[in-house]
Design a protein that fits this description.
It contains eleven helices and 25 strands. By secondary structure, the chain is α/β, with parallel strands linked by helices. The strands form eight sheets. Strands 5-2-1-9-21-20 form a six-stranded mixed β-sheet, with helices on one face.
Length: 435
């Protein structure tokens, strides 16, 4: 059995293993702080990533450690919890063991699967090989370094076509991530890179946002999508609606109508699918790989196994699936923690009479750029412009893990706002083109 902190009675404590240190996994583990259980949070990375701000790392607005926090550090003060960095390779449900890439398997009495989602390529040729996803800190840093290297290359080449390809950025997907990335790159090019590369004509650099449907932000009210499109256009972003990508190459993207744009940078923000681990477990999944769960987020036939967040096909009352957003994962994590705590305490007779999980939609928001955001609440007016931007800033500061991270982000945002600068313009990885 895995070691337990001294403050926990090892013989009395039931073992809860949480696979995944995202929003849902952390919410579940924290909510079990007062329960007589031993919690082990397992993740292939040693940190929690605040994914809503990954685009700001990619566009040089924040440093990567501003939005990441070591998982072990998160649980320093939680006496019944510990974190472990290892890759989960499978689960023996009958023996109640979580198998990992290194070390012995982890026994559990209750298992919470919170492994999240990965970028969906939708079978489009070349996406895996040539496009960038944005689901992890390493990907955000790779995008940032790549874009800066392309501008370095553009300044030292005399080939006009090569320069154009190097300074053209294509973002595929007109949801919140795509909109935020587009605005972030437009602002990065307009001020900081224009100053950094005075011999380049920054007006010739292009940011192109591609969406397959007929409007941006399809999950928002149409008026908000229209406002986002208009704002991006004023920032110089080319928005292409009702446009399908046929293939991605190392130096171009081809659309379904046969047209092609030369570009060295394609960011794929067109959607996500459940983590591939879900399909490997031998459990029932949806077409998008999400684990089928009952109304209490349990795996059918496995009363002590739960799935939450992006990997779970949790249903709303109208039969639709809970959206793959942070509030849904957090609410599910807290709900499952209550179920486990009640079951351990013997308060629910096995959990069969507990109220089903109900997702509470608290609204959606997306920032477009400086002084501009769109906010849609379940009730009340829609908020745009500067008030929406302030609301977006405040919520994201509150949700960040750790006081240091909040302070750093606030300082960086203030600096960026006052100086029109981006302080994180470092190329981290070596440049294969350097010579």
């Amino acid at each position: 059995m895995a070691p337990v902190p001294d403050e926990v009675d090892e013989e009395a404590a039931e073992r809860v293993v949480v696979v995944g240190a995202g929003f849902g996994g952390l919410a579940a583990a924290r909510a079990l702080a007062d329960a007589p259980v031993e919690v082990t949070v397992v993740d292939q990375r040693n940190h929690h990533t605040f994914q809503p701000l990954l685009y700001q790392v990619a566009t040089a607005g924040l440093d990567v450690d501003d939005i990441c926090y070591t998982t072990r550090g998160i649980f320093h003060r939680q006496r019944n919890a510990r974190a472990m960095q290892t890759r989960v390779t499978g689960v023996d449900f009958d023996a109640q063991l979580v198998r990992t890439g290194e070390g012995p398997p982890l026994p559990y009495d209750h298992l919470i699967l919170a492994v999240g989602a990965v970028t969906a390529d939708f079978g489009v040729p070349g996406v895996v090989e040539h496009a960038f996803g944005l689901k992890a800190a390493a990907e955000a840093m790779e995008i940032r370094s790549h874009v800066l290297r392309r501008f370095e290359l553009a300044e030292r080449t005399d080939d006009g076509a090569r320069r154009s390809s190097a300074t053209t950025i294509v973002i595929v997907g007109g949801g919140p991530t795509g909109v935020e990335m587009s605005g972030g790159f437009a602002e990065l090019i307009d001020k900081p890179l224009r100053r950094d590369f005075p011999h380049l004509d920054a007006d010739r650099a292009r940011v192109i946002l591609v969406e397959g449907r007929d409007r941006l932000l399809p999950s928002f009210a149409p008026v908000l999508g229209d406002k986002a499109k208009a704002r991006l256009a004023r920032m110089g972003v080319e928005v292409r609606l009702s446009t399908q990508v046929a293939s991605v190459e190392s130096d171009a993207v081809t659309f379904a109508d046969g047209t092609k744009i030369g570009t060295d940078t394609v960011v794929w923000a067109a959607g996500v699918v459940a983590n591939p681990l879900a399909r490997s477990l031998g459990l029932e999944t949806t077409g998008a790989g999400r684990l089928v769960v009952d109304r209490q987020l349990r795996i059918p036939g496995r009363s002590n196994v739960y799935a939450i967040g992006d990997v779970a096909a949790a249903m709303l009352e109208d039969g639709a699936l809970v959206p793959q957003v942070a509030p849904g994962a957090i609410q599910a994590g807290r709900y499952v923690a209550r179920l486990i705590a009640a079951e351990v305490a013997g308060a629910d007779g096995g959990g069969h009479e507990v109220e089903p999980f109900r997702y509470r939609d608290k609204g959606s928001m997306a920032t477009i750029g400086r002084n501009a955001a769109v906010v849609e609440l379940p009730v009340g007016p829609k908020i745009t412009g500067f008030p929406g931007w302030v609301a977006w800033l405040g919520l994201h500061l509150i949700m960040l893990v750790g006081f240091r991270n909040r302070a750093n982000v606030l300082v960086n945002w203030a600096w960026n706002y006052l100086t029109y600068d981006r302080g994180s313009r470092l190329i981290i990885e070596p440049d294969d083109d350097a010579g």
